[in-house]
Design a protein that fits this description.
377 residues, TIM Barrel, 12 helices, 33% helix, binds flavin mononucleotide
Amino acid sequence: MSFSVSRQALNFAVNKQTMTTHPILASFELAGHTVKNRAVVAPMSRASATLQGVPTAAMHTYYEKFAAGGFGIIITEGLYTDTIASQAYPHQPGIVTPAQIAGWQQLAEKVKAHGSLFIAQLMHAGALSQHLTHTQAPSVVTPLGRKLRSYGGGDGPFPIPAAMTVADIRAAVEGYAQAAKNAVDAGFHGVELHGANGYLPDQFLTAYTNLRNDEYGGAVANRFRIIAESLVAIRKVVPPGFMVGLRLSEGKVNDDHYRWPEGAVTAAAILEEVTKVAPDYVHISGEGSTWERLGVYANNESLTGMAKRIVQRPVIANGGLEDLVVAGRALQEGHTDFISLGKAALANPDWPAKVAAGLPVLPFERSMAAPFPPQEV
Ligand SMILES: Cc1cc2nc3c(=O)[nH]c(=O)nc-3n(C[C@H](O)[C@H](O)[C@H](O)COP(=O)(O)O)c2cc1C
C-alpha cells in the first residue's frame, strides 16, 4: 500500500466521487448510536469562555454551526476537569461548576437538535498550564517550548512543575470521573479523555517527562496507569450507552516532532494497554503532522490501522484529512472508521454539507483560530 497520491489521481477521484458517494458520508453504528456520517469536528481550544469557564454566546454559535453544517460528531475543545490543577488557559471552559454544567446543557441542546453526537473532551493540562503558576506533573521536568500568548497567561517558559504525589494522581483521576458525571448531566453523548498532545496523561506516557520509579513510571503499563485508572473511574459513574473515548498522539503542542521510541514496538505496547480498558473509540491526533506522515511503520501499517487491529474498537484518524482522496483511502482501506477535522472545520463549519453537494471548500487562515471576544450568553 502506498501513502502517496498523484495530483492527477486526486483530481480524478474528487471529480468522480461528486460527492454523495464519498465514504465519508456513510453512516456508522458507534456504541449504540447511529452516526450520520464519518466526519468529526476535532477538539479545538478556543479560550473564549468567561473567566468563570462558562460557555459564551459566541461559543453557542460556533458549535451550532458545525452541527447545522452536517458533522456526525462534534468533540468540544478541552474542558478543564477540576479547580485544583487542570486548567490550561484563562478563558478555557470547564465542566466542573454548576454554572459551567448549566451553560453546556443549553449549548448541547442546540447541537443535538441537528442530529450530531456531542462529546466533551476532558483535559488536564499538567505541566502545560498557561493559567496556573503552580503546576503538577509526573516529575519535576521543565516543559519544552513556551506558552502561546494568544491563549492568554502571557508568554515565556512554562513554570517548573511539582511532582505529583499518589494523592495528587488520585485527585486528578477523581476529577476526570466527576467531570464525566457532569458531562452526563449536561446532556453530552459521551466524553473523550485527552491523553494526547503533551497534556497530563501524555506527560505520564512519555518517558522524558515521567522519571518516576513508582507504579506510575517505568514500563509502558505503569506509564499508562493514570489513563487506565481514569477510564475505569469514568465508566463507574456514567450510565451504559454513554460513550467514553480516548485520544492519543505521538506529537505534542510543545514538541511537534516527538515520536514514540522504538516506533511500532512502543505503539503496540501502548495499544495493548488501551485494549484492556476498552474505550468506545480511539482517536489518534495528528498534532504536528498529518495522518499520512504519522506513524507509518516498517510493515507499512498506519498507526490508526494498528489501533483498529489491536484495540478492535472504532478509530478516529486526524491530521490533514480534508483531502478527500486521502480520507477516502483511509476509510476504504480500513485504516480508520472516522476522520476528524480541525483547521478545515474552522474554515468550513459546513464541510460535510459542502462535500455532499460537491461544492468547493475555503482554505484555513490563521485568524480563524483566534479566540472570540468574551461575552456572556
Ligand atoms: C486552534 C486549535 C486548537 C486546538 N485545541 C485542541 C484541544 O483542545 N484538544 C485537542 O485534543 N487538540 C486540539 N487541537 C488539535 C486538533 O484537534 C487537531 O489534532 C489538529 O488541528 C490537526 O488536525 P487538522 O489537520 O485537521 O487541523 C487544536 C488545534 C487547533 C488548530
